[in-house]
């Protein structure tokens, strides 16, 4: 089968316009390594194939993130009841301000009790008791009555940054919220009652 050089580069040019900048740069590097077209065939070096494989992985990751957010928006537009995150936390006897005001969206699987909270960038919140919590772009946890366990994507500052693995409130009347970050330590529940805007940081 004869491959026309002009059609080949036109197709890549079109694809490049649809790619994020990071993927576009990788594709340009891959193109440098593409061999010549001879007798209707073309040769692609091993390194170029690796570059193209990396681009595919980046696109797959991007696609998964977009799909997760699109699914949440679709359910909302479809009329499926979606509580605000503060309301969901309150119904489970947890402070409404455990997560920032400016989250992107969240998902909650009621059957598995799995909660996933999405943020546009790594960020942190300073609460009124001067405690600081830092969040990754995606925070995962298991949500149950008065508990967030198996947390991934949350840190608190205790001299140094330490990963938070669980948050719990012992009873409805309790005025304390307990954070497990290496050790278990109580903080005033009142400090976390209202969601606050987060400040963007460079990295989690």
From TrEMBL:
InterPro entries given for it? At5g01610-like, DUF538
- Short name of one Pfam family for this protein? DUF538
Name of the molecule in the record: DUF538 family protein
């Amino acid at each position: 089968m004869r491959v026309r050089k002009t059609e080949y580069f036109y197709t890549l040019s079109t694809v490049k316009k649809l790619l994020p900048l990071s993927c576009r740069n990788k594709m340009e590097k891959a193109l440098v390594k593409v061999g010549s077209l001879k007798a209707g065939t073309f040769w692609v070096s091993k390194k170029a194939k690796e570059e193209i494989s990396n681009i595919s992985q980046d696109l797959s990751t991007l696609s998964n993130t977009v799909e997760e957010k699109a699914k949440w928006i679709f359910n909302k537009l479809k009329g499926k009841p979606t509580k605000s995150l503060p309301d969901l936390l309150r119904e489970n006897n947890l402070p409404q301000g455990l997560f920032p005001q400016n989250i992107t969206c969240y998902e909650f699987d009621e059957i598995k009790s799995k909660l996933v909270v999405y943020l546009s960038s790594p960020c942190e919140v300073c609460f009124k008791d001067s405690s600081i919590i830092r969040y990754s772009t995606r925070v995962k946890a298991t949500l149950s009555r008065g508990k967030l366990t198996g947390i991934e994507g949350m840190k608190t500052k205790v001299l140094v940054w330490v990963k938070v693995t669980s948050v719990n409130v012992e009873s409805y009347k309790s005025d304390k919220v307990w954070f497990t970050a290496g050790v278990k330590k109580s903080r005033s529940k009142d400090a976390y009652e209202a969601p606050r805007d987060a400040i963007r940081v460079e990295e989690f």
